[in-house]
Amino acid sequence: MTLNRIGAIGLVWVSAIAAGCGSSGTTRTATTTSATRAGSPSEFSWLRPAPPPPAWSLARLTGTAALAYPPSWHRIGSDPGTVSAALMARTGLITEYLNATPKQADETLQDWASFRTAHNRNEGDSDEQVLAAARDLRFRNGRGSCVIDRYRTTRTRYQEIACLVHAPAGEIVIVAAGLAGRWAYDAPVLERAVSAFTA
């Protein structure tokens, strides 16, 4: 699911929270890997599977699949059978976003990067740019393929980490997105959430 899709299904504004709250103050250089280097595991060196911080909340998708999110975030409505959490600005703009969805189409670990970017375009996103992609990445209870990409919705430009994770219980998609202009600031908390994910 993309952020355009969230708007299309009638997301209810759940909290008046200023942009940027709840994120780590750690800064880092934004990812600039070109698509020609896609597949370089070094771009995913931040992916260190580990339990979430004790104060974080869990949104359970299935018996084993759990999405962890910071205490200042809130669960938001999303498609049936999925779970989402977000941090929102006072204007209602989603500034940081997490979603977990069971695999629903014919995506595979091998074609995940091209599938995800095509999916985003089909949902109305534009200016799609792949920054990095890799396969056979380790998660807490499985292996997965991930892509880091940027795209524009009708409201603003986002950057996302989107992964298809294969685990014994099935395949789950996790998406962690934030404002492209704030990615260097917001990335650590989004990366932490992906590292804590169980499928």
Account of the protein in words:
With 199 residues, the protein is an alpha+beta fold. It has one domain: Protein Transport Mog1p, Chain A (3-Layer(aba) Sandwich), CATH 3.40.1000.10. The protein is built from 3 helices and 9 strands, in the order αβββββαββββα. It has helices at residues 3-8, 112-122, 183-196; strands at 57-60, 66-69, 74-76, 83-88, 94-102, 126-139, 142-152, 157-167, 170-179. The strands form 2 sheets. The chain has a 7-stranded antiparallel β-sheet, sandwiched between helices. A two-stranded antiparallel ribbon has the order 1-2. The longest helix has 14 residues, at 183-196. The two termini are 17 Å apart.
Short description:
The protein has 199 residues and is an alpha+beta fold.
Structural class: alpha+beta
Shape: globular
Number of DSSP-assigned strands:
9
Helix-strand pattern, N to C? HEEEEEHEEEEH
Features:
single chain, 199 residues, alpha+beta, Protein Transport Mog1p, Chain A, seven-stranded antiparallel β-sheet, 3 helices, 9 strands, 16% helix
Chain-wise SSE layout:
Elements: H1 3-8, E1 57-60, E2 66-69, E3 74-76, E4 83-88, E5 94-102, H2 112-122, E6 126-139, E7 142-152, E8 157-167, E9 170-179, H3 183-196
